[in-house]
UniProtKB/TrEMBL annotation:
InterPro entries: ClpP/crotonase-like_dom_sf, Enoyl-CoA_hydra/iso, Enoyl-CoA_hydra_C, Enoyl-CoA_Hydratase/Isomerase. It comes from Streptomyces umbrinus. This is Enoyl-CoA hydratase. Pfam families: ECH_1 (PF00378). It is an enzyme of class 4 (lyase). NCBIfam families: PRK07827.1 (NF005879). Its EC number is 4.2.1.17. Belongs to the enoyl-CoA hydratase/isomerase family. Gene3D superfamilies: 2-enoyl-CoA Hydratase, Chain A, domain 1 (3.90.226.10), Lyase 2-enoyl-coa Hydratase, Chain A, domain 2 (1.10.12.10). GO terms for molecular function: enoyl-CoA hydratase activity. It comes from the Bacteria.
Length: 244
């Protein structure tokens, strides 16, 4: 059974993360299916743009601790989102945590409903938001991201819009999304591709400069005894020993 559901209407392909029982965690399987689906969208002349959304009440809970993707594979997925010559719009109506926020950062546009919540929870299990920083740090408010990276605090959709994590937030994500899709449908494929190339140049420079170092950092942290304790505590629903 697939974990990425596809639909197409009037030039827009919707890819829905569809593993709600795992809170759409970024497993090796989900990352692989999403990468393949995006590659197909990039080659399909009928696809003007892609909407990336989810089933269930969670957009993505971050890395699947039981079946995590290889850091290099996750970097490749994020880069594929940034490089795809068609706009990718995230539609969020639920919770987003840790690695799931990297998907939002890689998308060109992101809209969220008032039910959405966000948190960079890596620091609480003894790791750091390393790989996902590639698309995020060039786009987020530096003072705000320092706070949320360091504390793991949860914040709402209005704050996500203020710091640049999402483009716009509203009571109903589809109401916010509608004029965006209308604009994309009215835009030429060539115009969209070349405009996206302009917009993503600095983000891709960050990938070229930092991807190897941040991938190595992620691998080192996740394999450390400190992180193993943090992940075990998370899975056992208890506080790790450093909590005071």
């Amino acid at each position: 059974m697939t974990v990425v559901r596809r639909a197409h209407e009037r030039g827009i392909t919707t890819l829905a993360l569809d593993a709600p029982e795992r809170r759409n965690a970024l497993s090796a399987r989900l990352v692989g299916e999403l990468a393949d689906a995006l590659t197909e969208c990039g080659k399909d002349g009928d696809v003007r743009a892609v909407v990336l959304t989810h089933t269930g009440n969670t957009f993505s809970a971050g890395a699947d601790l039981r079946d995590p993707p290889d850091p290099d594979v996750l970097v490749a997925l994020l880069r594929r989102i940034v490089e795809l010559p068609k706009p990718i719009v995230a539609r969020v109506t639920g919770h987003v945590r840790a690695g799931g926020l990297g998907l939002l950062g890689a998308c060109d546009i992101a809209v969220a409903s008032q039910e959405a919540t966000f948190a960079f929870t890596e620091v609480r299990i003894g790791v750091a938001p390393a790989v996902i920083s590639l698309p995020l740090l060039p786009r987020l408010d530096p003072r705000a991201v320092a706070r949320y990276y360091l504390t793991g605090e949860r914040f709402d959709a209005a704050e996500a819009a203020r710091i640049g994590l999402v483009t716009a937030a509203g009571e109903d994500a589809d109401d916010v999304l509608a004029p965006v899709l209308d604009g994309l449908r009215r835009s030429s494929p060539q115009g969209l591709a070349e405009t996206k190339r302009l917009l993503t140049a600095k983000v891709l420079d960050t990938f070229d400069r930092d991807a190897a170092d941040l991938t190595a950092l992620s691998a080192r942290l996740f394999s450390s005894p400190h992180a193993r304790e943090g992940m075990t505590a998370f899975l056992e629903r208890r506080d790790p020993p450093w909590v005071r």
